Amino acid sequence: MSTSEPDKLMIKADKMTKLTLTRWNADWRGATDLYEQAAVAYRRANDYEKAKIAFEKASKGQEMLSSPWDAAKHMESAASLAKDLKKWNEVADFYRRASELYNECSRAQPASDALMKGARALEETAPEEAIKLYTDACVLLEEDGKEQMAFDLYRAATSLYIKLEKYNDAASFLLRLGLAADKCNATNSQCKAYLGAIIVYLYAHDIEQAEKCYNDCAEINAFQGSDQNRCAVKLLTAYSEADVEEIKRVAQSSTITHLDHAIIKLARKLPTGDVTARNEASKEQEEPLDENDLT
Questions:
Q1: Whole-angstrom Cα distance, residue 157 to residue 153?
Q2: Peptide bond before 271: cis, by omega within 30 degrees of 0?
Q3: Which of 41, 98, 127, 188 might form a disulfide with 75, Cβ 3.0–4.6 angstroms?
Q4: Number of other CB atoms surrounding residue 266 within 10 Å
Q5: Is the distance from CB of 153 to CB of 141 less than 8 angstroms?
Q6: Per-residue pLDDT tens for 82-135?
Q7: What is the Cα–Cα distance from 59 to 97, expressed in whole angstroms?
Q8: φ, ψ (nearest 5 deg) of residue 201
């Protein structure tokens, strides 16, 4: 097909969708077929901008034909081309639209996958938007009772929060993963998530929050007898005793080695603050012994 052929197809298709004095009804079926042909031809010719536009119009055509699944597929193709063209705003918009179209088909998994693809494409250039996409992708699966399919999404969002140094958000997402794992009876993933959250708080040198997080998690039966629980106890005990060498030793343990890479990296850097200062402050706050009080 010559380079002018897809241009002709687009012009013909556009005419078929416009109402005139002699055309009272748009021919969306015929136009959509032409848009699809043009999109493929443009892409083969590496004319990504025109291919993107053609896929957008093909998606609109499939919508008009009450075929949201095919419309979603074309919108994903447009999103992929927008990524190649580095049009990041369009990447987010197109993948979101694709997700909405899949949702119209009651297909939570592909709807979530579309958002995930958008998030991955935007991690470097628009991390805040990427996190929103990851979060929305998780929600779709949660609402459909498919939490186990969202584990990688929770982890990806957590890693991105850590890169942005938003440690409270990272820990919260790990706890969210723990809750999802609990619903799926995925005990190992659940316990890893809880230990990960504690480590994130310790890395942020929020020892008080780390202890509170541990106390909350320790009430959960699945966590109580786990290796991750024992590891957390050792870490927090070392902090309370201001034992820097023990903190470093525990951070090298096999239990932590089996956590996600982003969490391992944080653990290897513990402690990040002065643990002795907190220990000394707590001692000063202790009530002094009254030698005259023998009770």
A1: 6
A2: yes
A3: 98
A4: 21
A5: yes
A6: 999 999 999 999 999 999 999 999 999 999 999 999 999 999 999 999 999 999
A7: 10
A8: -65, -40
